# Entry
Amino acid sequence: MARIVMKFGGTSVADLERIHRVARHVKREVDAGHQVAVVVSAMAGKTNELVEWVRTMPKVTGASSPFYDAREYDTIVASGEQVTSGLLAIALQSMGIDARSWQGWQIPIKTDNAHGAARIMEIDGTEMIRRFEELGQVAVVAGFQGIGPDNRIATLGRGGSDTSAVALAAGLKADRCDIYTDVDGVYTTDPRIVPEARRLKKIAFEEMLEMASLGAKVLQVRSVELAMVHKVRTFVRSSFEDPDAPGMGDFDNPPGTLICDEDEIVEQEVVTGIAYAKDEAQISLRRLSDRPGVSAAIFGPLADAHINVDMIVQNISEDGSHTDMTFTVPSGDAEKAISVLNANKEKVGFDAIQSESGLVKVSVIGIGMRSHAGVAATAFKALAEKSINIKAITTSEIKISILIDGPYAELAVRTLHSCYGLDKS
Amino acid sequence: MARIVMKFGGTSVADLERIHRVARHVKREVDAGHQVAVVVSAMAGKTNELVEWVRTMPKVTGASSPFYDAREYDTIVASGEQVTSGLLAIALQSMGIDARSWQGWQIPIKTDNAHGAARIMEIDGTEMIRRFEELGQVAVVAGFQGIGPDNRIATLGRGGSDTSAVALAAGLKADRCDIYTDVDGVYTTDPRIVPEARRLKKIAFEEMLEMASLGAKVLQVRSVELAMVHKVRTFVRSSFEDPDAPGMGDFDNPPGTLICDEDEIVEQEVVTGIAYAKDEAQISLRRLSDRPGVSAAIFGPLADAHINVDMIVQNISEDGSHTDMTFTVPSGDAEKAISVLNANKEKVGFDAIQSESGLVKVSVIGIGMRSHAGVAATAFKALAEKSINIKAITTSEIKISILIDGPYAELAVRTLHSCYGLDKS
# Structure
């Protein structure tokens, strides 16, 4: 017997039939004797509809500002998860399973006061655990929400139901947190580009963090961070498979990908996966004055303008007085970034700005590369053989990121996937 | 300066444009210096959609019973008002008015544990009043809901937003409770039947109670009862008029109908209005044994079967041993009522059941009739002149109800409206 948190996203609860399928997944685990808490998102499309109403309301009143109160946004948008939690509780009860819905304020899931993008501070699982143990009751929890210090509903930001699930798993000291989604696990790379991509049995938290932030949209980044900090064994699996298919209830070896501490991964590969991020723009500052504080003078104003800077490359200057600096931003932000830089030209001190849009960043990710030399060299050699030009490189302990021209994206991903032996055997 | 509770129903908040119009009604009162709490229903159609999901969910799981947990029903259905309250708060803020939404559990509006049809036990208006006085803040309250002793959302039953508004007005000791609806007041009778019907300036609580329960669907009966008990001056007016039209903000004499204590009605008419209820069925028990407990034996089982019995007529028995008993039920319940009675035939003791469907009950209502003789005689004479046959009569202190054949409904209403001088002058 174990304690499991199960999480189902918006497409998994999009209508009553799908909510029934979710209930069957839950029933399977209950029948196996586990204690279960289920976290649900709003029905697909519902959150968007509510957000649209919130954004349109000020315009309808003829207000000059599009401002809206984040506390009211939270009140409105959280209603989507409220509905799904109640419907799933009814579905489970109809199938003979004791269940009840829990809103964030009832548990409570206490958050900070940052309405619209609140962080979870504390979860009190006492009553839920008492009900697991005394009644065998399933807890159906509205995801994405908690209650702020102002006693008002606070939402965790888009994709926040993943975070709810992982935080609840930590709070309940659950044995596992199963994230049911519309893919059946985490792959070595995007199978739409590389048909030979393999589903990983296990991936380390740190690797998943890189995969998630690089555009493998399986899990929200914050939820992976949280899982890493609290060492929550998190399992990514499909909600669309038949809940009663063979092996689905296998506790030790279910179908999907386990995200876990690296200690749990016995046969560590050198490279775990290849991620990519499209539509990057490169911005280079030429003959930048090389003095303390120059980086702050560049990136401070960009941050203030809410421009998300990704790769940053700066070479050691040759003459000790001037250098070149290159960084990337999403293509859509390039123009804005250049105008921010030009507005600060005097303060920063540079000769010229060069930029290029439509680039792609491909990344080689693997905890194993910490202890293996030559991983980067392998990538460079493989790309060179395909005549793919490398525009910039950054590396971390477990990642090599390479900026290339957009049209070469798929070729580069396939080449890297193959050169590290990740293709299906 | 006064304290006003304003309530807007589902058709008044059906879309963002209508919510803007509601906000303009609120702004008018705020600009006049009043302290305002607004109670809102769910957007028209929303509650029905949510209720439909709740009812369908057990069928989708293949459950043999259509049972659903009323606590989950409440959680799901209350989300409709949650959304509207947030949207109206945003609309008001966009118009430069300090406002915030309040859910039932936040105020709190404490109810009993009868989920789905809960009764309000206590409203704590302390914080709301503090915000009226210190911030001039408008309170936007989600109607129809409170929080039960189990710390879960409890709804007040259909139409419960009227009840929320009146209870809140009592709790806040408001000077007036304005119910904005899709009609512009309470009329002497249904204007669709009698074009000469007049809008009443004032009507006493007791009269309104009879009007409401007899099918004049302006206000929910429970809200009128509550207003009567707490002496809440309740004002029925239209939400569809231009919020800034002349006279709309007139505190002493606004357009609409005031429901108030009879003491406040100086020129009391003998008859205030004519109500009617269609689709009544009459059931008569012939040669009923006339002994103590026989009424209980009849109406106990009918109540257990949730059949709502209306008029009851029993004559003094001629021979002291047997009598006839007639009562009415909604036509849709007639068949069920008869089978319940037949199942209890031995216990009750009667010879035969006769029944007739498709009848109409017309009622003459007026507090003034308490002190005026001949009111009933006037009705009987007027109906006789039109050759309308009276099937049964019941009377109370302020009401005479007459059961007639369905096809005569409109003629009877027009005749009675005219014979008491209620037609427009």
